[in-house]
Design goal:
CATH architecture of the largest domain: 3 Solenoid
Distance between the termini: 88 Å
Number of helices: 4
Structural class: alpha/beta
CATH class of the largest domain: Mainly Beta
Helix content: 10-25%
Shape: flat
Strand order of the largest sheet: 8-10-13-16-19-24-27-30-33-36-38-39
Radius of gyration: 26 Å
Number of strands: 39
Strand content: 25-35%
Largest sheet: 12 strands, mixed
């Protein structure tokens, strides 16, 4: 699988700014590891030394660059990281072969609605009664699809995914290995000294172009729907509790926890190991930095950090003050001693 230089320029809407020796490319690599057959990119100034020394066949560069490594083709693009992603997708699409049909070792209930000529169901997969599967969808090995599940078009469910009963996936949803969609919400009532389970009878809805990371769990609603909004990307090892609603195009990073019935607006970013308490609302375009804890409603279009979450500048001032405490305490003790000596 190869791309020519002309194909790369067309695909990235780039401009040739430095010529090199290679004319076709079939690999992808970092600047440091690339060889003449590879495409790479300069997306961060930290890697500028690697860029100047690279052996990559072609490098995607931003417009601010005016030095070019010898022997490499340099193509100027608006966003090197995004342009590199387009090449990755192009090469991956050439390598991935969609083979429609149901593997003999899969089990599909008789009343499942799908076109076997346009859907791929691989060995060990189980699709239970009343489910529907859209054209172009790929269900990989050992996936478990519960009763009455609805799956849209061009979805990819990787190995060992579980989608429990009656949940809904819209179009182009990607589920990475071993994630669970529609597990029971964590609901109990203390009755007569015992924790009594509260039935969770709602569903999960994943809207168009959602991607869910490996080993992430998204709980079904106690009633109604847990909703992951269009275009939202959820990383590995994330816990999303019952009745959570996220807006469109959110980024939810590894080991984050979203407690029951919290709501995220559109384009919210929640960084690694952050948490949002139950019934809290986070406004559009808010950013919660790593290990931030949202314990009350947060306005949109701001960046937050700390526990509890505060605007970044406010939290940084607090941390700076705390860092000065040892010195201030020492000065206080010295001043107290001098006053006592004087008295």
């Amino acid at each position: 699988m190869q791309l020519t230089l002309e194909e790369i320029i067309e695909l990235t809407s780039g401009k040739l700014v430095s010529e090199g020796s290679a004319s076709s490319f079939n690999g992808l690599a970092s600047l440091k590891e690339a060889c003449a057959a590879d495409v790479s990119f300069l997306g961060n100034e930290k890697y500028y030394a690697d860029y100047l020394a690279t052996n990559a066949g072609v490098v995607l560069v931003p417009s601010i660059v005016d030095e070019f490594p010898g022997g490499s083709v340099a193509i100027e693009v608006d966003n090197p990281s995004f342009a590199f992603g387009l090449i990755v997708k192009k090469l991956a699409s050439k390598q991935r072969v969609f083979k429609a049909g149901v593997h003999p070792a899969a089990w599909v209930a008789d009343d499942v609605v799908f076109n076997a000529d346009k859907v791929s169901i691989k060995a060990g997969a189980v699709v239970e009664s009343g489910s529907r599967i859209g054209d172009g969808t790929e269900i990989n090995s050992n996936v478990s699809i519960g009763e009455g599940v609805v799956i849209g078009e061009e979805c990819v469910l990787h190995s060992n995914v579980v989608v429990r009963e009656f949940c809904e996936l819209e179009d182009r949803v990607i589920l990475q290995p071993s994630c669970v969609i529609g597990s029971d919400g964590y609901g109990y009532e203390l009755v007569d000294g015992r924790h009594t389970k509260v039935d969770q009878v709602g569903i999960v809805v994943l809207q168009n172009d959602v991607e869910i990371g490996a080993n992430t769990a998204i709980d079904r609603a106690r009633f109604g729907r847990t909703i992951i909004g269009e275009g939202t990307k959820v990383d590995n090892l994330v816990q999303v509790a019952h009745n959570v609603v996220t807006g469109k195009h959110c980024l939810i990073v590894a080991q984050t926890g979203l407690a029951g019935s919290c709501e995220l607006g559109n384009y919210v970013t929640v960084a690694a190991q952050a948490g949002v308490a139950g019934h809290i609302k986070v406004g559009d375009q808010a950013v919660l930095l790593g290990r931030t804890g949202a314990a009350k409603n947060l306005a949109g279009a701001q960046m937050y950090m700390g526990m509890p979450a505060r605007p970044v500048k406010e939290e940084q001032k607090k941390l700076a003050s705390l860092a000065r405490l040892p010195k201030l305490l020492k000065e206080f003790k010295e001043l107290k001693k001098s006053l006592n000596d004087a008295g």
